[in-house]
Design goal:
Layout: E1 3-7, H1 9-17, H2 22-27, E2 33-38, H3 39-46, H4 52-63, E3 66-68, H5 72-87, H6 94-105, E4 109-111, E5 125-126
Parallel strand pairs: 1-2, 1-4, 2-3, 4-5
Length: 130
């Protein structure tokens, strides 16, 4: 069985800023990992793409990933996660909370460079795929 990971926008953005192709890097792991995405990641990544061709290429690649939808039960999970973290003094951005809830719901890790995800109990956080 393949391992699962939601690729956070911070991964794509960091690689693009380094003039590296995040899609090429991810494809090297496709035989061991199921790569997931969600609407929040898609919007965060695509809104920053400057060139239409690059944006279309990225949109096509994201559409090939397993898509974690956000029906009402996932929003309820996000609410409960936010409420529990807030009570512990851990305040996170809504976008990160939704991504974390998607990962937890999908039994997936989060591939990210954003350290906030490490504050979510039970969430597996990766800085690289191996």
């Amino acid at each position: 069985m393949l391992k699962r990971a939601i690729v956070d926008s911070s991964f794509y953005i960091a690689r693009l800023r380094e003039n590296r192709d995040p899609l090429e890097e991810l494809s090297a792991f496709s035989d061991r990992w199921e790569l997931l995405t969600c609407g929040v990641v898609m919007v965060e990544v695509l809104r920053g793409m400057k060139h239409p061709n690059a944006s279309q290429r990225m949109a096509t690649a994201l559409s090939c990933m397993i898509y974690v939808s956000t029906p009402n039960p996932l929003w309820e999970r996000t609410h409960k996660l936010a409420w529990a973290l807030d009570r512990r003094g851990i305040v996170m951005q809504l976008t990160d909370l939704v991504i974390a809830a998607c990962a937890l719901e999908s039994d997936a890790a989060v591939l990210t460079f954003d350290s906030d995800f490490r504050r979510v109990p039970g969430l597996r956080v990766l800085s690289r795929l191996i």
